[in-house]
Design goal:
single chain; mainly beta; two-stranded antiparallel sheet
């Protein structure tokens, strides 16, 4: 597993998420551990290294 730290697009707090680097491109929803709002997370891995990452708000 790969741990990545980033800023929540809702509350702006730094949060971390564990991601599976064996899947090269992923898109999924995970709640912020601070404010509990849903974040669409889209990491991209190459050779088990994170090469791209987006965290977006989900319009509710």
């Amino acid at each position: 597993m790969y741990e990545h730290f980033f800023q929540c697009p809702y509350c702006w707090e730094e949060v971390s998420m564990l991601m599976d680097p064996s899947i090269s491109r992923q898109t999924y929803i995970e709640d912020c551990e601070v404010c509990c709002n849903p974040i669409e997370v889209a990491p991209e891995f190459q050779n088990n290294e994170l090469v791209g990452f987006e965290a977006r708000e989900i319009g509710q």
